[in-house]
Specification:
heterodimer; A: 176 residues; alpha+beta; GMP Synthetase, Chain A, domain 3; 3-stranded mixed sheet; 31% helix; globular; B: 1039 residues; mainly alpha; Son of sevenless (SoS) protein, Chain S, domain 1; ARM repeat-containing protein (chain B)
């Protein structure tokens, strides 16, 4: 197999949501002994899906070329690169940055993000996946390929491809 | 015919064991001689018929085998050896002859000349290829015996023996024989002159490497892969002469082998390289390193990578180890170590890249090789990294550079050079100490590099003798600056590392932390609570407190914490001027609560760690807390004073319990006297000694019927001190039963709120548990009266009866935990209420509550705990409940039994009910239909806890389909409003595929995936997370 980037730069992952001292808007420090279920049930407050939540879904996907590292560690994906369409809230754009402009794995990375979100986000969402402008030599073709339903479906028919995909996704649930 | 002759003939005809025995006995007793046996055998030994001859030799062989060593004289052995050696030539008698020889070898009269004769005869006549395993095993046994007992004679045989053995051992395949063969080969290689045959020996040992043998299942011989590997390695590293031939073979195995082979080879190299010696290692150094490098820089897995690093260390040590002549300080390092260092330095020029991680690992490994190599490595790496850090062009890579430097320092600290004393470790670093310290302190100033800088500083602090006291002060000073830095303050990782480092420093010398860091932190705590809308300020003091909580565990730091925080507490709760009379009290109370919480959490941690200084606070902190709460309660005229807040009292109660727990019996006795003096005799002064003078004019009597609710709240602090008493501590009253009566009466009649009631219940349980023998009066009559009067009376208000049931739980619990015989009877009474629709569910839940683990009757609180009390309880209750569901026709009663079941099962350990799962599961599934959310969640939790992927219960599989549909129903927000149930149901859905066979469950897959798509859109984030998890599992569920 051709190695596209044998020595990639590693980035320090950001922390996901912080542990909290108190419930929102409370003056009182949390009691460590109190049972958790009390703060789960009561409120009717709806917690919207946000940038961080989508990022949490894809940050731990393994890089196909460096399986021991996640997309986040290689800065392929990041929270600010996930944007909601301000007019149509169910439309999300996920942008990613290949580590090198000639990276042949980019399609695969895009596909793995696509499949992960397909499985994990409610059906009402419409996801656009694209590479960061200027970060890949065949940017246009790549974007077209990743957002073509037929081609994504066709790719998923390929058992060999699917197996590698599942391997990369198997780390996705693990929190860093 | 003599008896010997008779025995011989009978044996030849029948083969009976007894005959051999009688012959052996006859010889042992001196009734016959071996000669008689030979005479009797005469015709058989020389018979023409193969079969008869075989039998003859066999008999002789068995007799020799069973004869004690002293019954065989030199003459006999001599003759027998010669005879048996001759018989080796005869294909019909070779097998018994071998057995006989094996027996003879171990006899005392067997001499060296016999050994040579036997060895020669074996080499001449035995063809291993025609023998089966067991017979070959005998041959190896003979040689093993010879080598063990007559080694010198065999060595004197010279090349004949070695070459003869090689021919014998060639082509052996059976693991049982190989174990022996390897052991023999090792002796040969070490003690015999094998120079001429080294290649042949190489061939008959290295052909087995690597061992790929897998023992068959239920292997009766119990030979493991490890046994064989060990034995073979014993041969491979037996002689340096193998080196030049072995290394290329090893390298080939590493390059081409599977990960397991790679690891095996690396481990073997670890023990072979030192034997090969410096010059062989040097000759192959390049090739070896090239192979290892691949494993380190492009590792297949972490384990192999670490082994490759380890083997590299062995290689370097082998090359550079010069015994005792290491004194030459300025020794020039040439060759491999230098080349590798240069190679790594080149990679380290890009510290942010992935390869740098591996390169630093190699350098770290070098630090633990030989002192001179370590010194050389440090002299190359440390200045390089320091320069890189200081280079303005590399400023964006500072964080990565510091990480590498920190790793290296840590490697020095952990360096395992055997000869290195602590002083030498620090000596290795001390030339660079100042610049490294400088670099790390600069690194502290930026958020990005702060974490790694802290890591490095910690490594430096931990290196013994490296930093002097003044420098520790410098480190602490710099950390203090980071502490006050706004940017880094909110980063949890950084504050964790800071804390870690400060604790490390203070464990060496607490002076710096207590003199500079603590004052800084204390002074940042405001004297007045921030206003309600000053959220940032509140967050700040929470940060500070949480930091203090984790930092002040050491006894002197903790003492400081107690003094400063209790002073602050007094100041907040009883302000000198009451200027804020009309203002908002809640933030103040919350602030005081946070301070108390900090003290309680720190104490709890200290108790957990077994610190002995906790008990002394029964004289300091505890009276002060009583003082504060008593004073505030007494001076309050119904208006709100901070320290009367029940939330504060609860935390103070925790502190009291934690401290009194650790007090000794004598101390507790005095304390409990003061406690009763205060609560029952109206003399609170001694218990609550402290700064504030309790107003004398107001009566202090929390248990009196007309006490204010504020005073009644103080019962919480009474209970807190009563609960952790030792069982030897008697209550300071003439009749302990009376105390119980008072408490029971008070709980039902006068307690105003749940807090007060629970406190009294806990006291009741604790007294019953520890003093059951002194309250017989209460147990014999009063309890029954209570049940009849309070719980069973249907004319009483519902609320009243619920209180009674709740108290009943604690009465029973106190007795149950100590294994008292009444407990079971008391628990059974709850069944009587199952027919009473108004309280049936309360009574049912109570059954579970009784068995539930609580924080009151614990070993730490010195409760009398009977071993496995919960299991016993479950064993007696479960059958009654199961029977109850089945036998009762009234649906209300049935439901009550179901509620009791779900409640009980949640309280008891899994082992107490897992064997009943078959009959329980249908009932639990019915429990899932009950309208109560808590019950549903409990049932699912129970199901989750019995879900064990290693044993796929057929019971679960039977109900798999209904489980799936029930869980789906409970996982959708529209159908199930409770978040807890939804989460539990989703978790169970995620578990199902691992506990039910694929063929049973897979028809549900499409349905589950479709339904879960809805759960992905749940309003709650926590639920969505579980939904994603579950759906992923089902997507992957493809058989």
């Amino acid at each position: 197999m051709e190695v596209f980037n044998p020595n990639p730069t590693i980035f320090v992952p950001t922390k996901s949501r912080h542990a909290q001292f108190a419930k929102p808007h409370s003056l009182w420090l949390n009691d460590p002994d109190s049972e958790q279920d009390t703060d789960e049930d009561d409120s009717d407050e709806v917690e919207q899906i946000d940038q961080d939540e989508i990022f949490d879904l894809i940050r731990s996907i393994s890089d196909p070329e460096h399986r021991s590292m996640t997309l986040e560690q290689l800065a392929v994906v990041s929270a600010p690169q996930i944007t909601f369409n301000s007019k149509v809230p169910d439309r999300v754009t996920v942008e990613f940055t290949p580590t090198v402009p000639h990276c042949g794995m980019s399609t695969f990375i895009g596909l793995s993000i696509r499949v992960r979100l397909l499985r994990s986000l409610p059906e009402r969402y419409k996801i656009d996946i694209r590479v960061k402008p200027g970060s890949h030599e065949s940017e246009h073709a790549l974007n077209k390929q990743l957002n073509d339903k037929e081609r994504v479906a066709a790719a998923l028919e390929n058992p060999a491809l699917l197996e590698v995909l599942e391997q990369c996704l198997s780390t996705a649930g693990r929190s860093t | 015919m003599t008896s010997i002759e008779r025995s011989v003939r009978t044996w030849i005809a029948s083969g009976r064991e007894n005959e051999i025995e009688s012959v052996v006995n006859a010889i042992s007793n001196g009734e016959a001689t071996l000669l008689d046996v030979v005479k009797a055998l005469g015709e058989f030994l020389t018979a023409e018929e193969d079969d008869v001859r075989n039998k003859g030799v066999e008999l002789l062989s068995q007799v020799v085998n069973q004869l004690p060593s002293d019954k065989l004289n030199r003459q006999a052995v001599r003759v027998l050896v010669t005879f048996m050696c001759e018989k080796l030539d005869d294909t019909e008698t070779i097998i018994p002859a071998l057995k006989a020889l094996k027996a003879l070898v171990s006899k005392d009269a067997f001499t060296s000349s016999d050994a040579v004769e036997v060895a020669n005869a074996l080499f001449r006549h035995v063809k291993m290829k025609v023998l089966v395993q067991a017979q070959r095993f005998v041959v190896y046994g003979i040689i093993d015996g010879l080598v063990a007992r007559h080694r010198d004679a065999l060595i004197n045989m010279g090349p004949d023996f070695v070459s003869g053995y090689i021919k014998l051992a060639e082509g052996e395949k059976d693991p049982r024989n190989l174990l022996l063969a390897f052991a023999i080969a090792r002796v040969l290689l070490i003690e015999f002159d094998t120079a001429k045959y080294i290649e042949d020996l190489f061939n008959i040992t290295f052909c087995y490497f690597p061992i790929t043998f897998r023992p068959p299942p239920d292997d009766p011989y119990g030979i493991t892969t490890e046994d064989l590997k060990e034995a073979l390695r014993g041969c491979l590293n037996a002689t340096p002469a193998f080196g030049p031939m072995a290394i290329p073979l090893f390298l080939e195995k590493i390059t081409a082998g599977s990960p397991a082979t790679k690891r095996d080879t690396l481990q073997t190299l670890d023990i072979c390289l030192p034997v090969c010696g410096s010059s062989v290692a040097k000759d192959h150094a390049r090739k070896l390193w090239n192979t290892f490098r691949l494993e380190i820089f492009q590792p297949t897995d972490v384990e192999t990578e670490n082994m490759a690093l380890n083997t590299t260390q062995v290689l370097v040590r082998t090359i550079y180890q010069t015994h005792g002549t290491e004194i030459v300080q300025d020794e020039e390092i040439e060759g491999l170590a230098k080349d590798v260092c240069e190679e790594c330095l080149k990679i380290l020029k890009e510290p942010e890249k992935n390869q740098a991680k591996h390169a630093i690992k190699v350098m770290c490994a070098f630090v633990s090789t030989t002192p001179s190599v370590a010194k050389f490595t440090l002299s190359q790496a440390v200045p390089h990294l320091v320069q890189l850090f200081l280079n303005p062009d590399e400023i964006q890579n500072r964080s990565a550079t510091l990480k590498l430097l920190a790793d290296l320092i840590d490697a020095v600290r952990e360096s395992v050079i055997v000869t290195t004393a602590d002083e030498e470790k620090s000596a290795a670093l001390s030339p660079y100490k100042d610049e490294v310290l400088g670099v790390f302190t600069v690194g502290l100033k930026t958020v990005a590099s702060c974490g790694h800088a802290l890591e490095g500083l910690k490594a430096m602090v931990l290196t013994p003798h490296l930093l002097v006291d003044e420098e520790l002060g410098f480190v602490v000073h710099n950390i203090n600056e980071v502490l006050t830095n706004e940017e880094t303050q909110n980063d949890e990782d950084i504050s964790d590392s800071i804390l870690d480092l400060l604790t490390t420093v203070s464990s060496i010398s607490s002076r710096h932390v207590s003199q500079t860091t603590l004052p800084l932190l204390f002074s940042s705590l405001p004297d007045q609570a921030p206003a309600r809308d000053a959220e940032a300020d509140r967050l700040k003091y929470w940060h500070t407190l949480s930091f203090l909580k984790r930092l002040c565990l050491q006894s002197d730091l903790f003492e400081m914490l107690v003094i400063r925080l209790s002073t602050k507490l007094d100041l907040i709760c009883v302000p000198a001027s009451s200027t804020i009379a009309d203002s908002d009290h809640e933030p103040t109370a919350a602030y005081a609560h946070s301070i108390l919480r900090t003290l309680a959490d720190t104490l709890a941690r200290k108790v957990e760690l077994g610190h002995t200084d906790v008990s002394k606070y029964s004289d300091r902190l505890v009276p002060r807390l009583y003082n504060l709460h008593f004073y505030s309660t007494l001076v309050s005229n119904g208006d709100y004073l901070v320290a009367t807040d029940p939330r504060l009292i609860s935390v103070s109660a925790e502190i009291v319990t934690l401290v009194i727990q650790t007090a000794l019996v004598g101390k507790q006795e005095t304390f409990v006297k003061n406690l009763f003096g205060a609560y029952f005799d109206g003399k609170p002064g001694t218990l609550a000694e402290g700064q504030h003078k309790l107003p004398g004019e107001k009566p202090f009597a929390p248990f009196s019927p007309d006490a204010t609710s504020l005073q009644k709240n103080l019962v919480v602090l009474f209970s807190a001190a009563l609960v952790p008493l030792h069982k030897e501590v008697a209550l300071p009253v003439p009749n302990e039963s009376k105390v119980l009566e008072t408490l029971v009466h008070w709980t039902i009649q006068y307690a105003d709120n749940v807090l007060q009631r629970e406190a009294a219940e806990h006291s009741v349980a604790a007294i019953l548990n520890k003093r059951a023998d002194s309250v017989a009066d209460f147990l014999s009559s009063k309890v029954d009266l209570f049940w009849a009067d309070q719980a069973e009376r249907i004319d009483l208000p519902l609320e009243h009866r619920r209180k009674a049931i709740s108290l009943w739980i604690w009465i029973t619990k106190g007795l149950l935990v100590r294994g008292h015989s009444l407990a079971q009877r008391f628990a059974n009474r709850l069944f009587d209420l199952f027919g009473d629709a108004s309280v049936s569910w309360d009574a049912a839940r109570a059954i579970g509550e009784i068995a539930r683990q609580d924080k009151i009757l614990t070993k730490k609180n010195h409760a009398v705990v009977k071993f496995l009390f919960a299991q016993r309880f479950a064993n007696s209750m479960l059958p009654k409940i199961i029977d109850g569901v089945k036998s009762s026709s009234d649906p209300n009663r049935q439901n009550a039994f179901l509620v009791a079941l779900t409640s009980l099962i949640k309280s008891i350990p899994k082992s107490a009910y897992i064997h009943e799962m078959f009959s329980l599961l249908p009932l639990l599934l019915r429990g899932l239909e009950l309208p109560d959310h808590n019950i549903r969640a409990n049932v699912i939790d129970t199901l989750l806890s019995v879900a064990d992927p290693s044993s796929k219960l057929p019971t679960i599989a039977e109900h798999a389909n209904s489980l799936v549909s029930t869980m789906l129903k409970n996982s959708i927000a529209k159908k199930m409003p409770s978040t807890r149930v939804r989460i539990a149901a989703l978790q169970y859905l995620a578990t199902l595929p691992s506990i039910v066979r694929y063929d049973v469950l897979h028809p549900q897959r499409a349905l589950v995936l479709r339904e879960l798509a809805g759960a992905l859109d749940d309003p709650k984030r926590a639920v969505r997370k579980e939904a994603v998890e579950a759906r992923t599992v089902w997507f992957k569920y493809t058989g």
